[in-house]
Amino acid sequence: MDAPVRHAAEIGGLDLQELFATDPGRGTRMTARVGDVLLDYSKNLVTDETVDLLVALGQRADVPGRFAAMRAGEHLNTTEDRAVLHTALRAPRDAAIQIDGLDVIADVHATLDRMAQFADAVRTGRWRGYTGAAVTTVVNVGIGGSCEQSRRRRSVPLRDGNDGVGQEPVASRCTAAAVSASGAATRQNTVPESSSNQYRRYSTP
Q: Which one, out of 13, 53, 67, 110, has a CA that is 20 to 30 A from the CA of 129?
């Protein structure tokens, strides 16, 4: 880690406009394409040396091996002793992905179908809360990447974090709450859900 740390200190004062001015080919060279996805990292405060150092660091940390282990369904989540195969959520219906000897794709798409049906029922007003009223506000309760995906698409209030701070102004308007989490059993995911439920118990008319 010494070389990347030293390099970070050396380039800390770089200016992005200056980098482009002194390296006209930067915008073309600092890109990568995978299928239809273009990754343009030229607008980050990095140099060719930065990229070389990061690649070397990733090789030393065996990032390719860890990625292969993730795709193979190994239990990389040591907290819950289970796989972290997020790629299964994005795989097509005809894919085959094994976790602990079982092909999980059919279960994944069955769950995605139920989620789509539920979301459609909420949007059209067919699904109603216990008061009988249609859902007008959805509060997304989550942390990390799960919450960030909702943030990018949102027209809904968000509640991040592991405590009850910020609950009241949102939960008082709440007619439905969606808990977004990559795992269900860890404390970082159960605490926000618990605090939201506790507030609603005392705020529901």
A: 110
